[in-house]
Every structure is written in C-alpha cells, then in structure tokens.
Amino acid sequence: MFGLLKGFGVTVSQIPKKKVTLQYPDVKPNWPDRFRGVHKFNPNLCIVCNQCARICPTSCISLSGSRGEDKKLHIETYDINFEICILCDLCTEVCPTEAIQMTDTFELAEYNRDALYKNMEWLVENGKQHAQRKGLIGEASVHDANDTDEVAGKAGEK
Fold this sequence. Notes:
By secondary structure, this protein is α+β, with helices and mostly antiparallel strands. The protein contains five helices and five strands.
C-alpha cells in the first residue's frame, strides 16, 4: 500500500512540470547546433580531392571526376551508402571547400537496403530541403541551386 502511495506521489509531483514529449512528426524537435544528420552536397564547391572518401572509416563514400577544358577537376559522381555510414562527420571536417556538410535530416526509412545508396542528385536535393527548412533560401541561394541542377544534369548525361 505504501508503494502505491509513493508512486502516486511521484506522478502528482510531475503534473506541474514542463512536458518533454513531442507529438512527432507533427511537432519537430529543435536540434542542437552540433546535431549531425544526413549529408548535403554542393557539386560546385567540390574539387575532387578525394579526402572525404579516404578518411571515411566505413568506406561508404565513392566519387569520380574528370578534368575539364579549363584543366580543373569536375565532379561527375558522388555517392554515399547510408547503409554503412555512421554519420561520424569526418568527411565534412576534412573537406577543404565545405562541399559536403551535415544537415539536421535524419529520417532515412526505406523498404530495401538498396534505396539507402544515395547519389549526388539526392544529396543536392537534401541540401535544398535543408535550406528551405532553415529559411536560408534567398535569391543568391536559388541561383546556386540552379547551378547545382546544371552540374547534376551534366553528370547525369555522362
């Protein structure tokens, strides 16, 4: 009987406190600034240095590029296998141009494992969605987004 009253006392003491349960997915949580979600990629910034793929502890990143007429390397493919990615953030820390960055997106539920293999177009689109959620899309950002579409389209043509 004493245990029942003790438990009831604990329950009553929690009533005036602030609720911590959110009605997810209707109410999205506020993530800390250092939260690491799924990557976003800007192909215009990538110099195909391959450092992200080399430092990845699970070898989930693969990329390829070719030398253009201006003798600079241009990215052709950039793929991440999220089936084995551990979101360690090493690829973003080593990137000299910040072409690859982490977002607050974490929902990657799929019906099969092959769908977790994401290509450059998906990563670019994820970056656009992240910018829209954060309210970062401005006129300059839209221009950048159009450039990334052109680059992604060229990569898809090859």
